[in-house]
């Protein structure tokens, strides 16, 4: 099994992803933030579009559904729990389901919090996680609809994936996330190295994604709420995980 992944920017800071299964020649887009940018990337690669895998209902992830469906006849797959908020879905999926793209199998994991029905797509065999706005590099999405307990449980499940798994998130927020992470763990050596690397990459116009989950486990404060330094930073040493997560998320909101 071989998977090619094309990464490009949509809108202002959304990431666009094309996932191409080499053996079958089938291609999927992860979310539909910008139909024109996706169509341009497909043309450059010489690929068609078979599937669009939607993660959640926010407009900057679904706006391109209708034109992509009209132009390419792609099947649109998305979260069952948000079916009433997303027009144009052809197939509904939920945590525990799978989606097949040629020889590549995507597992659906539930990550409620940013939105209640947010899902992510995991190519476990290839080590690729398409997490949209559930998990960013050194950050997580704002908790618009969910509660800290379920959101943390979804993130903890992602944290349990192998370190070599590559994270593909929904936005290029890494530099601002790094600044916040350093305010929480200023003495974290791995974080200081990653933050400096990210600053160089962005200055050169380079993408900071993908990044390994191993790096995220070492640098992302939202995946490190069980670490004493993170707990001390929000004044909640030894507290329940959900309360610590809530406090770190509130600190980021106010940062």
From TrEMBL:
SUPFAM superfamilies hit by this protein: Metallo-hydrolase/oxidoreductase
Domain Metallo-beta-lactamase: 13-171
Residues the entry annotates as binding Zn(2+) 1: 56, 58, 114, 133
Pfam families: HAGH_C, Lactamase_B
GO MF annotation, one: hydroxyacylglutathione hydrolase activity
Positions with a binding annotation for Zn(2+) 2: 60-61, 133, 171
First-tier enzyme category under EC: hydrolase
GO biological process, one term: methylglyoxal catabolic process to D-lactate via S-lactoyl-glutathione
HAMAP family in alphabetical order: Glyoxalase_2
Family matches, as NCBIfam families: GSH_gloB (TIGR03413)
Subunit structure comment from the entry: Monomer.
Similarity-based family: Belongs to the metallo-beta-lactamase superfamily. Glyoxalase II family.
Name listed for the protein in its UniProt record: Hydroxyacylglutathione hydrolase
Source organism: Arsenicitalea aurantiaca
């Amino acid at each position: 099994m071989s998977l090619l992944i094309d990464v490009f920017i949509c809108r202002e800071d959304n990431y666009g992803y094309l996932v191409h299964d080499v053996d079958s020649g089938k291609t999927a887009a992860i979310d539909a933030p910008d139909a024109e940018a996706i169509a341009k990337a497909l043309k450059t690669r010489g690929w068609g579009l078979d599937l669009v895998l939607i993660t959640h209902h926010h407009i900057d992830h679904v706006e391109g559904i209708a034109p992509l469906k009209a132009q390419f006849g792609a099947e649109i797959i998305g979260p069952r729990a948000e079916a009433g908020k997303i027009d144009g879905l052809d197939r509904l999926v939920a945590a525990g389901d799978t989606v097949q793209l040629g020889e590549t199998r995507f597992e659906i994991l539930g990550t409620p919090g940013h939105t209640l029905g947010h899902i992510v797509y995991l190519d476990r065999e290839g080590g690729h996680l398409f997490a949209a706005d559930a998990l960013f590099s050194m950050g997580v999405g704002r908790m618009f609809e969910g509660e800290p307990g379920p959101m943390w449980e979804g993130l903890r499940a992602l944290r349990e994936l192998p370190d070599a798994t590559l994270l593909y998130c929904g936005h290029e927020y890494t530099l601002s996330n790094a600044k916040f992470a350093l305010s929480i763990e200023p003495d974290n050596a791995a974080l200081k190295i990653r933050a400096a690397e990210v600053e160089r990459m962005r200055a050169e116009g380079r993408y900071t994604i993908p990044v390994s989950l191993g790096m995220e486990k070492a640098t992302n404060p939202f995946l490190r709420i069980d670490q004493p330094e993170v707990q001390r930073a929000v004044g909640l040493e030894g507290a329940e995980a959900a309360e610590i997560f809530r406090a770190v998320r509130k600190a980021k909101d106010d940062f």
